[in-house]
């Protein structure tokens, strides 16, 4: 039921645009496997043997988002999935590479307007006993 409610949430807030571009696919695949990877755009450009500005423009053209915003969106999607599975916020924050739980909660609030606990309470209110 919780996953059904997530599907009904605002699409633009829960959408992760991707691309078939091989450089962007490499970033996507790596960050899904290692979401704690906090490599900068410059570091990604070096890994992919390209220019930082060119890579930034490519990501923005293909996804409509800056690299930082795109990675935040990926983290949000992964966090929502893990929260729906019942994982603790502390574990999720660490898994995603946030320096603190507060940093993770701040990102979540900026993106969805509520803390993780408030967000899930709003889409799946407790059932009356």
TrEMBL record:
Q: Does the keyword Transcription regulation apply?
A: yes
Q: Which SMART domains match?
A: HTH_ARAC
Q: What is this protein called?
A: Helix-turn-helix transcriptional regulator
Q: Which PANTHER family match?
A: HTH-TYPE TRANSCRIPTIONAL REGULATOR NIMR (PTHR11019)
Pfam families xrefs: HTH_18 (PF12833)
Occurrences of domain HTH araC/xylS-type (ranges) = 22-122
Instruction: Recite the UniProt keywords alphabetically.
Output: Transcription, Transcription regulation
């Amino acid at each position: 039921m919780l996953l059904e409610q997530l599907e009904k949430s605002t699409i633009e807030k829960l959408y992760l645009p991707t691309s078939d571009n091989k450089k962007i696919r490499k970033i996507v695949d790596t960050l899904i496997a290692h979401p704690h990877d906090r490599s900068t755009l410059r570091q990604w450009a070096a890994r992919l043997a390209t220019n930082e500005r060119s890579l930034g423009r490519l990501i923005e053209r293909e996804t409509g988002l800056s690299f930082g915003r795109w990675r935040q969106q990926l983290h949000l999607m992964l966090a929502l999935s893990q929260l729906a599975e019942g994982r603790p916020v502390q574990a999720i924050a660490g898994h995603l590479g946030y320096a603190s739980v507060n940093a993770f909660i701040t990102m979540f609030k900026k993106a969805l307007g509520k803390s993780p606990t408030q967000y899930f309470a709003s889409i799946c209110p407790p059932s009356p006993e």
